[in-house]
Amino acid sequence: MVLAVVGLVIGVLVVTGLADRFSLPGPILLLVTGFAVSFVPGVPGYELTPDLVLFLLLPPLLFAAALESSAVAIRQLVRPIVQLSVGLVLLTAFTVAVVVTAVDPGVPFAAALALGAIVAPPDAVAAVAVARRVGLPRRLVTVLEGESLFNDATSLVTLKVAIAAIGTTAVGWGSAIGEFAWAAVGGVALGAGLGWLLSLIRRRVLHAGLGPAGTSALTITSLSLLSPFLAYALGELVHASGILVVVVSGLVLGFRSPSEVPAAVRLTENATWAALRFVLEGAVFALIGLQLRGILGALGEGESSDQSTYLVIGAVLLTVIASRPIWIALIHLVSRLSSRRTPITWPGVAAVSWAGMRGVVSLAAAQTLPMDTPHRAVLLAATVAVIIGTLVLQGLSLPWVIGRLGLSRDYSSDDERQRAQAHARASAAMMQRLDEVCRDEHLSPHQIDALRQWAAARDWRSGDGSDQDDIERSREFGRRVGEHTDWRRALLAVERAEIVAMRNEGELSEPVLQTMQYDLDLEETLLERRTEAIDGHLAELPSEQDPDPDAGVRSATTGRTGAPERPVTAAAEGLTDSTSGSVRQNLPDDGPSDADLQGRTPDEPSTTVRRSWPGS
What we know:
Structural class: mainly alpha
Shape: globular
Number of helices: 22
Order of helices and strands: HHHHHHHHHHHHHHHHHHHHHH
Strand content: under 5%
Number of strands: 0
Largest sheet: none
Oligomer: single chain
């Protein structure tokens, strides 16, 4: 068992790395590789049980996605998200049921409806990854993310109703509607309540400050890892939708995190969830491939003839692919007739219509079918055909479709513009607060000057970009700050090499090294982010009157075209080769001065904060 899990994780890492290296769709390559590996002698059998997926894999995946999703954006687009995650799932399920019973009248309607519920919800993991890579508009990406967060609940509740109706003469629609309503309303209410409660517990833990430094981060991260399983169990306990409880509680916690969680805790929590989500997303597609051999081998055990089996499988695949664009177009048309303003245009409708890849939820749901379900092997095979067909056909062609629709674009400039606006607004708030502090705290003129210079350096962009002098000052000061950043990164490399050498020589204990290393990692990460912001800002400045002959080349730091290349200072780069001796001896005479970096004249007093130990 242990070797099987280790082998699975190693395989996911290797295949995902190859997919990134050769720009291939990771989910498809993982599925194909898993299917091929299942034929290798000696490879252990991987049984993807429903409990494994529905309780151990699906909750953390949906919770992690909810933490990263924007509750504000989802609220703004709640109408199309509900239309897709509820209305479209139900329409697809019943369409598939009607087609299956028409192709093979021997399949009971309840069993056909169960198959429709199984293949109805798309898995947006692959679609969102492709959409972000090719530059699909953010609004459409939010719609796809919101659909994938909530459509599983609709599918699983519909499947539960259909399974209960198998073997009966008719479906109890009254009880089914009541069960569906409670699953939806109860799931949302419980998710919101649980999210609020977990947020309260998180604040109390942080306020108590239990244990040594760093313990709070581990405690909060552990609580976050436990939350999706607690949410799912609570929802299933009261017969509501455990999936909805997981998603809503994740949205609540993600929305409140920026104002409640300290930076060090958030860094630890985000890194943990990113690693876990990376492994789980790859594992589920690899497990689908590993399961295919056994599922396809069980086809001969069904009651249907070979001809009817393949007719049903082909009809279901075509229905799933064709019905999504038709129903989405009709839903959008009705929305336009009932409301003058719609958040999605017709090209966006076409792109969303083609982003219908199915995934692990469909396969896990199919395996919840009772063993005595009529034509169970055919239903499983049809599910597999839909997963593979949509992943290959739609997954490979989605970038081409988005490009042909004219929706693909680079949003880095918009991101830089929003970041600049946010910096400007935050700087204004900081200056206002600084004025209040200067009035109330009776600070000395030197302290006030130091605080003002620090606050001004937080946003080094000059003016609003409408004046050419402002542009030139912003460009020049941005370059000076960039050079300063390169120097600081080089000096950090010298400090890092020195303390590692002291550890190796036995002059520095491992706990002290780890503490210093953590501080250096945080500082270097901040410098890297500042370098990206500088290069992004330089790329946004108008270059018509820029005398720099290198303007328009690809940035060495960001890789974007349009920014003048700002190579790392050669002398600063040379500092990283020095691991001993005086740092000052390695500094060239033409290095940036403190006066240049702070916008002062050489005669003004320096306010630079020195990095030194107490008492030095």
